[in-house]
Amino acid sequence: MDPTGPTAVDTSAASPSAADEVVEHAPDGLAVIDHEARFLEANPAAVRLCGLRPGAVAGARSPFPPPGDAAVAGRPGELTLDWEPRPGLRREFAYVLTQVPGRRRWVVSFRDVTLSRLRERRLAAIATAASSVASKRSLLGTLEVLAQEVARTDALAGVQVLTVHGSGNRLQVMGSAGFGRSDEFFDRLMQCRALGARLRMLDALVSREPVVVPDRYDAVMRDPAWAPLHDFMRHPRWDWFVSVPLLARGEPVGILNAFFAPGQTVGDTELEFLLAMAEQAAMAVDHAAVLERERDVVRREERQKLARDLHDSVVQQVFSMNMQATSLGVLVARGLPPAPEKVAQVAEDLSSSAAAVLADLRGMVVELRPAATSAEGLASALRSLVDSTAARTGVDVSLDQADPDGCLAAVDADLLEDVYRVVAEALHNSIKHADATRIHTRLTVTTHGGRRRLVAEVTDDGRGCGTRVGPEPGGSGSGGLGMTVMRERAARWGGAVEVRQLDGAGTSVLLTLPLPGSWPATGAEPVP
User: Which helix (H) or strand (E) holds 190?
Assistant: First the structure.
């Protein structure tokens, strides 16, 4: 190859030099291009990689941008580009441009990195999906991210993630890419089934094995049984279809459907990637189900706690009020009208009891109130909780809050809810079990080593937790169902709850957890 010669040469001389032999047999593409990025010469590897005709190299358009293009001008080192020589065939080249001294010609050395970059993207997509599952966001948000990652990574026409809903007789689209989202999708799918369409995704769900169907688009669009979904599935254009079941604990919990673009085929590597992403999706579905079961348990426990509190306070006080009012009625019925002093005393007792009942009910309403979806909502909810607790019980309850950077405003509402519940339970323990007369509550955001942590502490001057661990630990102790729930709420976000006996008397309940966005990448702390 002569980069300074006036014309392109596609054949070797009769007695090639050692340099010519290297160029001829080099595994990487070597070519000479002009200022318009047209080929002047190319070695056999370049001809093969670019799909050129060996006898028609000179003047053919190259996949590389013109050397004077702003995208490459002044950029040293190896560059990369995406190239699609025909629909469905996508190539990625890593290349280096070197200008021939004194000539408007450039030598380009390039190699095909399609598979290696695809593997990198697939690994990154799996990591992104795993991170989304680990961050414990909403199931809908997690599966939407996963569907987008699958479609983007392999340049697919469309992706759907469906989950088994309700009694197991219905599928719900929870993640989608390429196609729009329709609440009628499953109903129309069932209409297609009633018309005789074979739903291969259900085959995957029942068999618990992936289903691969080539040339599926044409078959679906020609079949009148699929008419209810023709408009939905017509665009974007696709060809091969793959359905992979989502298996959690061996049971199918959903399906991942992949719609490959025309020209794309499904091999082992494509199927392995879909199986890996389906595994992440199944983990997300399973985690959401476990979390919902845990929330059901917490809701039942909170209802039981409310019932106990109503019985211990409101019911007893209302019963007392009823007895006092009945005694007056009995006296009147016997013709013994009570003295004014007696009526005044009963009225005063009834008024005091009613005020106490009202305070208790207000306190219970505050405890049941969910934390709002912003930092101001959490601050307001905790302030209301502290004030109502102080008014209802007569205990001196104070609150200090500090969020200098305002980072709580971007925190997940579920995290704020759990913080609120932990503080509420700690206050409840101090009031009910520790006989505290003074309780100090502190909520702060600290920064150390670039990591932000939320710290919530409830400190009382009660009789302390002692050393016994059990269902009735005394004080706001370290055992019991309430503490278990508190610790589970903290562990959900990679945090912890610590109960400490203070010197002399009193107990401190300390909640610490890392705030999202500040978790270290090295795993030095648990990631939620």
Answer: helix 185-194
Q: Which CATH number fits domain 371-528: 3.30.565.10, 3.90.180.10, 3.40.190.10, 3.40.50.720?
A: 3.30.565.10
For the ranges 193-207, 276-290, 388-402, 457-471, which has the lowest average pLDDT? 457-471
In terms of CATH, what superfamily is 18-112? PAS domain (3.30.450.20)
Tokens 């005694």, residue located = 327
Report which of 53, 52, 2 is spatially closest to residue 32, judged by C-alpha positions: 2
50-79 mean pLDDT:
81
Put residue 98 in one of left, alpha, beta given phi > 0 → left and psi -120 to 50 → alpha.
beta
Domain ranges of the chain: 18-112, 117-290, 371-528
Instruction: Give the tens place of pLDDT for each residue, 299-309.
Output: 777 777 667 66
pLDDT tens sequence across 218-262: 999 999 999 999 999 999 999 999 999 999 988 999 999 999 999
Please say if the pLDDT value at position 92 is more than 50.
Answer: yes
Helix 413-432 × helix 480-491 angle, to 10°: 160
Q: Which CATH number fits domain 117-290: 3.30.450.20, 2.60.40.10, 3.30.450.40, 3.20.20.70?
A: 3.30.450.40
Which of 62, 74, 61, 22 lies closest to 43 in space, CA to CA?
22
How far apart CA 153 and CA 439 sit, in angstroms, is 54
Q: Lowest-pLDDT range, 69-78, 213-222, 226-235, 449-458?
A: 69-78
Distance set, CA 419 to CA 91, 131, 430 (Å) = 50, 23, 17
**Do 371-528 and 18-112 fall under one CATH topology?**
no
Strand partners, 440: 398, 459
Angle at 522 between CA 516 and CA 523, to 5 degrees: 65
